[in-house]
Amino acid sequence: MVYDVIIIGAGPAGLSAGLYAGRSRLKTLIIERAQDGGQIAITDEIENYPGSLPEHESGKSLVARMAGQAKSFGAERLADVVKSVSLEGGIKKVACAKGTFEARAVIIATGAHPRPIGCENEGRFIGKGISFCATCDAAFFEGMEVFVAGGGDSAVEEALYLTKFARKVTIVHRRDALRAAKSIQEKAFKNDKIHFLWNSVIVSVDGDGVMSSMKVKDTRTGVVTEFQADEDDGMFGLFGFLGYVPNSELFQGLLPLESGYIRTDEDMHTGIPGVFAAGDIRVKSLRQVVTATADGAIAAMQAERYISGLE
Prior knowledge:
Layout: E1 2-8, H1 12-23, E2 28-32, H2 59-72, E3 76-79, E4 82-86, E5 92-96, E6 99-108, E7 112-114, E8 130-131, H3 134-137, E9 145-149, H4 153-162, E10 168-172, H5 182-190, E11 194-197, E12 200-206, E13 213-218, E14 224-228, E15 237-240, E16 244-246, E17 257-258, E18 261-262, E19 275-277, H6 289-310
Parallel strand pairs: 1-2, 1-6, 2-3, 6-19, 8-15, 9-10, 9-15, 10-11
Antiparallel strand pairs: 4-5, 5-6, 7-16, 12-13, 13-14, 17-18
Protein backbone atom coordinates (compact mmCIF):
# COMPACT_ATOMS: atom_id res chain seq x y z
CA MET A 1 0.00 0.00 0.00
CA VAL A 2 1.18 3.51 -0.82
CA TYR A 3 0.20 6.18 1.70
CA ASP A 4 -0.51 9.72 0.68
CA VAL A 5 1.61 11.09 3.51
CA ILE A 6 4.10 9.60 5.94
CA ILE A 7 4.91 11.79 8.93
CA ILE A 8 8.14 11.00 10.77
CA GLY A 9 7.72 12.09 14.38
CA ALA A 10 4.73 12.43 16.70
CA GLY A 11 5.52 15.63 18.54
CA PRO A 12 3.23 18.66 18.29
CA ALA A 13 4.35 19.31 14.69
CA GLY A 14 3.82 15.71 13.60
CA LEU A 15 0.48 15.33 15.36
CA SER A 16 -0.75 18.65 13.96
CA ALA A 17 0.31 17.52 10.49
CA GLY A 18 -1.49 14.22 11.05
CA LEU A 19 -4.66 16.00 12.10
CA TYR A 20 -4.68 18.28 9.06
CA ALA A 21 -3.67 15.55 6.63
CA GLY A 22 -6.32 13.18 7.95
CA ARG A 23 -8.94 15.90 7.84
CA SER A 24 -8.03 16.46 4.18
CA ARG A 25 -8.85 12.79 3.56
CA LEU A 26 -5.23 11.86 2.93
CA LYS A 27 -4.15 8.33 3.79
CA THR A 28 -1.74 9.21 6.59
CA LEU A 29 0.81 7.27 8.62
CA ILE A 30 2.61 8.78 11.63
CA ILE A 31 5.81 6.97 12.64
CA GLU A 32 7.30 7.60 16.08
CA ARG A 33 9.96 5.55 17.86
CA ALA A 34 9.14 6.78 21.39
CA GLN A 35 6.16 8.29 23.17
CA ASP A 36 3.92 10.82 21.47
CA GLY A 37 4.74 14.42 22.15
CA GLY A 38 8.52 14.54 21.98
CA GLN A 39 10.00 17.12 24.36
CA ILE A 40 6.64 18.56 25.34
CA ALA A 41 5.46 15.21 26.75
CA ILE A 42 7.88 15.60 29.66
CA THR A 43 6.92 19.20 30.45
CA ASP A 44 5.04 19.49 33.72
CA GLU A 45 3.15 22.71 33.08
CA ILE A 46 2.24 24.63 29.93
CA GLU A 47 1.03 28.20 30.37
CA ASN A 48 1.64 29.77 26.96
CA TYR A 49 -0.21 27.51 24.53
CA PRO A 50 -3.43 29.22 23.38
CA GLY A 51 -6.47 27.46 24.76
CA SER A 52 -4.57 25.30 27.23
CA LEU A 53 -6.49 24.21 30.30
CA PRO A 54 -6.42 26.98 32.93
CA GLU A 55 -6.35 24.71 35.98
CA HIS A 56 -3.25 22.71 35.05
CA GLU A 57 -2.20 21.84 31.52
CA SER A 58 0.72 19.42 31.32
CA GLY A 59 2.57 18.42 28.20
CA LYS A 60 1.18 14.93 28.59
CA SER A 61 -2.44 16.06 28.73
CA LEU A 62 -2.06 18.43 25.77
CA VAL A 63 -0.36 15.78 23.64
CA ALA A 64 -3.01 13.21 24.52
CA ARG A 65 -5.70 15.50 23.08
CA MET A 66 -3.59 16.21 19.97
CA ALA A 67 -3.05 12.49 19.38
CA GLY A 68 -6.75 11.80 19.86
CA GLN A 69 -7.66 14.43 17.29
CA ALA A 70 -5.21 13.04 14.73
CA LYS A 71 -6.57 9.54 15.28
CA SER A 72 -10.18 10.74 15.00
CA PHE A 73 -9.43 12.01 11.49
CA GLY A 74 -7.99 8.67 10.43
CA ALA A 75 -4.24 9.12 10.86
CA GLU A 76 -2.58 5.77 11.54
CA ARG A 77 0.13 5.49 14.20
CA LEU A 78 3.15 3.18 14.00
CA ALA A 79 5.66 2.67 16.82
CA ASP A 80 8.91 1.97 15.00
CA VAL A 81 12.45 3.20 14.37
CA VAL A 82 13.21 4.74 10.99
CA LYS A 83 16.45 3.32 9.63
CA SER A 84 16.74 5.14 6.30
CA VAL A 85 14.74 7.18 3.82
CA SER A 86 14.61 7.52 0.04
CA LEU A 87 13.11 10.91 -0.76
CA GLU A 88 13.61 11.39 -4.48
CA GLY A 89 10.96 10.55 -7.09
CA GLY A 90 7.21 10.34 -6.99
CA ILE A 91 7.09 7.57 -4.38
CA LYS A 92 9.11 8.11 -1.20
CA LYS A 93 10.32 5.17 0.87
CA VAL A 94 10.76 5.06 4.63
CA ALA A 95 12.62 1.97 5.83
CA CYS A 96 11.86 1.01 9.45
CA ALA A 97 12.82 -1.88 11.69
CA LYS A 98 9.40 -3.47 11.03
CA GLY A 99 9.38 -2.94 7.27
CA THR A 100 9.47 -0.37 4.48
CA PHE A 101 6.60 2.03 3.93
CA GLU A 102 5.85 4.13 0.85
CA ALA A 103 4.11 7.47 0.36
CA ARG A 104 3.66 10.21 -2.17
CA ALA A 105 4.78 12.84 0.34
CA VAL A 106 6.84 12.87 3.53
CA ILE A 107 6.70 15.33 6.41
CA ILE A 108 9.77 15.32 8.64
CA ALA A 109 8.95 16.25 12.23
CA THR A 110 11.74 14.51 14.13
CA GLY A 111 12.41 17.38 16.53
CA ALA A 112 15.51 17.62 18.68
CA HIS A 113 17.03 16.08 21.81
CA PRO A 114 18.76 17.60 24.86
CA ARG A 115 22.33 18.77 24.39
CA PRO A 116 24.81 16.95 26.68
CA ILE A 117 26.25 18.89 29.59
CA GLY A 118 29.72 18.15 28.25
CA CYS A 119 31.46 17.33 31.52
CA GLU A 120 33.87 14.51 32.27
CA ASN A 121 32.22 11.21 33.32
CA GLU A 122 28.79 12.46 32.21
CA GLY A 123 27.85 9.16 30.55
CA ARG A 124 28.61 7.15 33.69
CA PHE A 125 26.07 9.03 35.77
CA ILE A 126 23.10 9.46 33.45
CA GLY A 127 20.28 7.92 35.44
CA LYS A 128 22.51 7.86 38.53
CA GLY A 129 22.36 11.54 39.36
CA ILE A 130 22.28 13.18 35.93
CA SER A 131 18.97 13.74 34.18
CA PHE A 132 17.58 15.81 31.33
CA CYS A 133 13.96 15.62 32.44
CA ALA A 134 12.81 17.25 35.67
CA THR A 135 9.26 15.97 35.26
CA CYS A 136 10.55 12.42 34.94
CA ASP A 137 13.11 12.38 37.73
CA ALA A 138 12.47 15.21 40.20
CA ALA A 139 10.79 12.88 42.71
CA PHE A 140 14.02 10.87 43.04
CA PHE A 141 15.62 13.92 44.66
CA GLU A 142 12.96 14.63 47.25
CA GLY A 143 14.55 16.71 50.01
CA MET A 144 17.99 16.69 48.36
CA GLU A 145 20.14 19.31 46.68
CA VAL A 146 20.10 19.59 42.91
CA PHE A 147 21.92 21.63 40.30
CA VAL A 148 20.63 22.83 36.94
CA ALA A 149 22.98 23.53 34.03
CA GLY A 150 21.69 26.26 31.71
CA GLY A 151 20.17 29.72 31.72
CA GLY A 152 17.41 29.72 29.11
CA ASP A 153 13.65 29.33 29.43
CA SER A 154 13.74 25.55 29.85
CA ALA A 155 16.50 25.62 32.47
CA VAL A 156 14.77 28.19 34.65
CA GLU A 157 11.30 26.68 34.22
CA GLU A 158 12.61 23.24 35.19
CA ALA A 159 14.52 24.72 38.13
CA LEU A 160 11.25 26.19 39.38
CA TYR A 161 9.58 22.81 39.01
CA LEU A 162 12.42 21.11 40.91
CA THR A 163 11.81 23.36 43.93
CA LYS A 164 8.65 21.35 44.56
CA PHE A 165 10.89 18.40 45.46
CA ALA A 166 14.46 19.47 46.24
CA ARG A 167 15.42 21.46 49.34
CA LYS A 168 17.84 23.58 47.31
CA VAL A 169 18.20 24.21 43.55
CA THR A 170 21.30 25.89 42.14
CA ILE A 171 21.36 27.16 38.56
CA VAL A 172 24.84 26.92 37.02
CA HIS A 173 25.21 29.37 34.16
CA ARG A 174 28.27 30.22 32.08
CA ARG A 175 27.28 33.88 31.86
CA ASP A 176 26.46 36.56 34.44
CA ALA A 177 22.81 36.90 33.40
CA LEU A 178 20.03 34.50 32.47
CA ARG A 179 18.73 34.20 28.91
CA ALA A 180 15.23 33.19 29.99
CA ALA A 181 12.22 35.41 29.46
CA LYS A 182 11.94 38.20 32.03
CA SER A 183 8.68 36.84 33.43
CA ILE A 184 10.35 33.48 34.12
CA GLN A 185 13.43 35.12 35.62
CA GLU A 186 11.28 37.10 38.02
CA LYS A 187 9.71 33.91 39.36
CA ALA A 188 13.15 32.35 39.88
CA PHE A 189 14.62 35.37 41.68
CA LYS A 190 11.64 35.43 44.04
CA ASN A 191 11.97 31.75 44.91
CA ASP A 192 13.98 31.26 48.11
CA LYS A 193 14.99 27.75 47.13
CA ILE A 194 16.76 28.84 43.95
CA HIS A 195 20.41 29.92 44.04
CA PHE A 196 22.88 30.82 41.28
CA LEU A 197 26.45 30.06 40.24
CA TRP A 198 27.27 32.75 37.68
CA ASN A 199 30.08 32.56 35.11
CA SER A 200 30.48 28.87 35.81
CA VAL A 201 30.69 25.60 33.88
CA ILE A 202 30.60 22.02 35.13
CA VAL A 203 33.86 20.27 34.21
CA SER A 204 33.47 16.83 35.83
CA VAL A 205 31.30 14.65 38.02
CA ASP A 206 32.20 11.61 40.10
CA GLY A 207 30.95 9.19 42.69
CA ASP A 208 30.80 5.57 43.78
CA GLY A 209 27.87 4.16 41.83
CA VAL A 210 25.85 7.36 42.12
CA MET A 211 26.97 10.94 41.58
CA SER A 212 28.21 12.52 44.79
CA SER A 213 30.78 15.10 43.68
CA MET A 214 31.04 17.75 41.00
CA LYS A 215 33.73 20.19 39.92
CA VAL A 216 32.73 23.63 38.63
CA LYS A 217 35.09 26.09 36.94
CA ASP A 218 34.79 29.86 37.10
CA THR A 219 34.97 31.04 33.48
CA ARG A 220 36.61 34.34 34.47
CA THR A 221 39.29 33.20 36.91
CA GLY A 222 39.71 29.55 35.96
CA VAL A 223 39.34 28.53 39.61
CA VAL A 224 37.80 25.08 40.05
CA THR A 225 35.50 24.43 43.02
CA GLU A 226 34.42 20.95 44.10
CA PHE A 227 30.94 20.30 45.49
CA GLN A 228 30.25 17.25 47.63
CA ALA A 229 26.91 15.67 48.40
CA ASP A 230 25.57 15.95 51.92
CA GLU A 231 26.59 12.85 53.93
CA ASP A 232 22.99 12.12 54.89
CA ASP A 233 21.88 12.29 51.23
CA GLY A 234 24.78 10.37 49.73
CA MET A 235 24.17 11.96 46.32
CA PHE A 236 22.76 15.01 44.55
CA GLY A 237 21.09 15.68 41.23
CA LEU A 238 22.31 17.44 38.11
CA PHE A 239 19.81 18.39 35.42
CA GLY A 240 21.01 19.50 32.00
CA PHE A 241 19.06 22.12 30.01
CA LEU A 242 21.66 23.53 27.63
CA GLY A 243 19.58 23.54 24.51
CA TYR A 244 18.88 20.86 21.95
CA VAL A 245 20.50 18.96 19.10
CA PRO A 246 18.36 18.40 15.99
CA ASN A 247 17.44 14.79 15.17
CA SER A 248 18.64 15.07 11.60
CA GLU A 249 21.14 12.21 11.25
CA LEU A 250 18.88 10.42 8.76
CA PHE A 251 18.93 13.40 6.43
CA GLN A 252 22.64 14.16 6.29
CA GLY A 253 23.58 14.51 2.63
CA LEU A 254 19.95 14.26 1.53
CA LEU A 255 18.63 17.68 2.50
CA PRO A 256 20.16 21.13 2.98
CA LEU A 257 21.08 21.57 6.66
CA GLU A 258 22.14 24.56 8.72
CA SER A 259 23.82 23.68 12.04
CA GLY A 260 22.03 20.35 11.74
CA TYR A 261 18.58 21.87 11.23
CA ILE A 262 16.69 21.40 7.96
CA ARG A 263 16.29 24.52 5.83
CA THR A 264 12.79 25.17 4.51
CA ASP A 265 10.84 28.03 3.04
CA GLU A 266 7.87 29.53 4.89
CA ASP A 267 5.63 26.81 3.45
CA MET A 268 7.82 24.02 4.88
CA HIS A 269 9.24 22.92 1.50
CA THR A 270 12.69 21.39 1.83
CA GLY A 271 13.75 21.69 -1.81
CA ILE A 272 12.85 18.11 -2.72
CA PRO A 273 9.36 17.95 -4.25
CA GLY A 274 6.94 16.24 -1.87
CA VAL A 275 9.26 16.47 1.14
CA PHE A 276 8.43 18.89 3.95
CA ALA A 277 9.85 19.63 7.40
CA ALA A 278 7.99 21.00 10.42
CA GLY A 279 8.67 21.89 14.04
CA ASP A 280 11.94 21.98 15.94
CA ILE A 281 13.84 20.09 13.24
CA ARG A 282 13.79 23.05 10.86
CA VAL A 283 15.68 26.35 10.85
CA LYS A 284 13.47 28.90 12.64
CA SER A 285 13.64 31.77 15.12
CA LEU A 286 11.24 30.41 17.76
CA ARG A 287 10.86 26.79 18.88
CA GLN A 288 7.65 26.53 20.87
CA VAL A 289 4.61 24.25 20.81
CA VAL A 290 2.53 26.90 19.11
CA THR A 291 5.01 27.35 16.26
CA ALA A 292 5.43 23.59 15.89
CA THR A 293 1.69 23.03 15.49
CA ALA A 294 1.50 25.84 12.95
CA ASP A 295 4.37 24.29 11.00
CA GLY A 296 2.62 20.93 11.01
CA ALA A 297 -0.62 22.40 9.71
CA ILE A 298 1.17 24.26 6.91
CA ALA A 299 3.20 21.19 5.95
CA ALA A 300 0.10 19.01 5.73
CA MET A 301 -1.79 21.49 3.57
CA GLN A 302 1.21 21.91 1.29
CA ALA A 303 1.49 18.13 1.05
CA GLU A 304 -2.18 17.96 0.06
CA ARG A 305 -1.58 20.56 -2.68
CA TYR A 306 1.46 18.63 -3.89
CA ILE A 307 -0.41 15.33 -4.03
CA SER A 308 -3.37 16.94 -5.79
CA GLY A 309 -0.97 18.11 -8.49
CA LEU A 310 0.17 14.53 -9.04
CA GLU A 311 -3.32 13.23 -9.71
